[in-house]
Amino acid sequence: MKIKISKNQWKAVGRKAGWMKQGQAAYTGLPNETEMIKDPSCPPEVLQRVLERGEDDYVSHNAADNPNCPPEALAMVLKRGNNNLVSYNAAANRNCPAEALKMVLERGKDDLVSYVATGNPNCPPEALQKVLERGKSGWVSLKAVMNHNCPVEALKMVLERGKDNGISQFAARNPSCPPEALAMVLERGKDDHVSRCAADNRNCPAEALQKVLEREKDDWVSGNAANNPNCPPEARKEWMTKLHSATTHATNNQIKISKNQWKAAGRKAGWMKTSQITPDDGYADGGESYTDEEMDLMENTFKYYINLDERSEFYADVRDHTGKTVFEIKANDEEDNIFADGFMKHKNDLNGLKEYLVHLGIMQPTQRLIKGN
């Protein structure tokens, strides 16, 4: 394959990129062709000529990915309607015009090209709105609610559906999500994942956060509400006081926990040093002994349990080091689920599940996820 350019163009680009010496003027042919196309200083007209050939080869991939590629060339690629790597790179390129991205999304496909088009900062809000109005699950809709260009009306529309799927969760996490939509989610009084995301959003109004804490519950939603900077200090203090009172009452009733459980709780709360392992009176002195390294490993380990897997019914959950369920997977109904949305490829896809939990803020990238059974 040969790209038709003049010797002078080849020489000028080669000198600027550093792979041709000052006195080297001869056209050297294919070996340097790819390096030239990848170079950010490659002339736009050269990149356009490459893409006009309509090939799906390595040189074309790099041409569509080049930040110097002209908008009209990228639009030309996307008009072909192909779902290949050239189109993928064209839709992801920051030079891609808004009209071309809108054209891609109007096709209503759930392919890779549409996925990167919804994530492009140039994607117009009205195109993202139409994607979400279809009510489909999957990566394209997910990318649409994650885009900061997503209009507030679209985010509110998603949350009004009342679902606890990935689309709703990321809509509640979007920094553009309107306060009234977040308050609406919390008014449902649930401790589901979308509510946790709503309580964690910095747009969440103080009144909604206060109402959550007034329920006097010790759950994830309350914890996120208390940690939100918008939470009224007096509401946070009252909630923590009542929580401490309940804990003291439980202590007087002689709940039995091991030294290591006490140590883990104390270290997490910040009132116990790493080396301090002696519990207060009233706590059991039982359980195995672990080193600090072993304790750190346990505290940063989540376990995935498959509880039901029969025919069309499936139920699993993820638990933290205390055994508390932090995420549930139900795939026995017609609702959107983690498998239908494409986040987990199969029931044992721990990598996909961890990536999803990290996106939700339930896990940190440094923590590990293992099978519990």
Explained architecture:
The protein has helices at residues 7-17, 33-38, 44-52, 58-65, 71-79, 85-92, 98-106, 112-119, 125-133, 139-146, 152-160, 166-173, 179-186, 193-200, 206-213, 220-227, 233-252, 259-269, 292-299, 350-360; strands at 301-310, 313-319, 325-330, 368-371. The protein has 373 residues and is of the alpha+beta class. Among the domains are: 1-96, no CATH class; 254-287, no CATH class; 300-371, Double Stranded RNA Binding Domain, CATH 3.30.160. It has a four-stranded mixed beta sheet with strand order 3-2-1-4. Helix 6 runs parallel beside helix 8, helix 8 (112-119) packs parallel to helix 10 and helix 13 (179-186) crosses helix 14. It starts with 6 loop residues before the first helix and ends with a strand.
Question: What is the overall number of helices?
Answer: 20
Order of helices and strands: HHHHHHHHHHHHHHHHHHHEEEHE
Q: Give the strand content.
A: 5-15%
| Order of the strands making up the biggest sheet | 3-2-1-4
Extract low-pLDDT stretches: 21-31, 274-288
Q: How many β-strands, per DSSP? A: 4
How can the largest sheet be summarized? 4 strands, mixed
User: Which class of secondary structure composition applies to the elements?
Assistant: alpha+beta
What is the first-to-last residue Cα distance?
55 Å
* Rg for CA atoms: 27 Å
Large-scale geometry: elongated
What percentage of residues falls in helices of 4 or more residues? 40-55%
Q: Any key phrases for this structure?
A:
373 residues; alpha+beta; Double Stranded RNA Binding Domain; four-stranded mixed β-sheet; 20 helices
